[in-house]
Amino acid sequence: MTASETDRVTAAVQRLRHAGLRNTAARRAVLGQLAHAVGGRGHLTVTELHHALLARGVTVELSTVHRVLRQLVELGIAHTVPVGRTTTFGLADDAHHHAVCGACGDMRQLPDEAVDASIAAARAVGIDPDPAGQPSGVVVYGRCAVCRAATR
Ligand SMILES: [Zn+2]
Ligand SMILES: [Zn+2]
């Protein structure tokens, strides 16, 4: 894990503790994998997450991964983005929007300016964003370059 991944996991574990949840190996492993994804696509499906953990030698039941993710979402530590019929999970520790290829599921987190712009837009229509809330989760669906080339 990189230093920033470790920081993210530490901060998330802190929030779990505040919520009265213990810092279990399974929770730490799931958080570590989600933090690792931030540098890439940002989000993972439950299956991808489970396979990545098994590949790293972390023995954990799929049902446990499901349960941990549900807890993280309930606490606002993670959030979901639907891609096709599956749900992807990503850390919600910093506000971000998403651009998703609806054909292959490739995903990118959009730069901070996108979040700033949506906050400004909300203010402009008279809604002052909740400072405690994460103004993240806007999803723009489309086609990535690879999929556009394939259908040409
Ligand atoms: Zn996200
Ligand atoms: Zn694509």
Automatic annotation (TrEMBL):
Its cofactor is Zn(2+). It comes from the Bacteria. Signal peptide: none annotated. GO terms for molecular function: DNA-binding transcription factor activity; transcription cis-regulatory region binding; zinc ion binding. The keyword Transcription regulation applies. Keywords: DNA-binding, Metal-binding, Repressor, Transcription, Transcription regulation, Zinc. Zn(2+) binds at C101, C104, C144, C147. GO terms for biological process: negative regulation of DNA-templated transcription; regulation of secondary metabolite biosynthetic process. Binds 1 zinc ion per subunit. The keyword Cell inner membrane does not apply. PANTHER family: FERRIC UPTAKE REGULATION PROTEIN, ZINC UPTAKE REGULATION PROTEIN. Belongs to the Fur family. This is Transcriptional repressor.
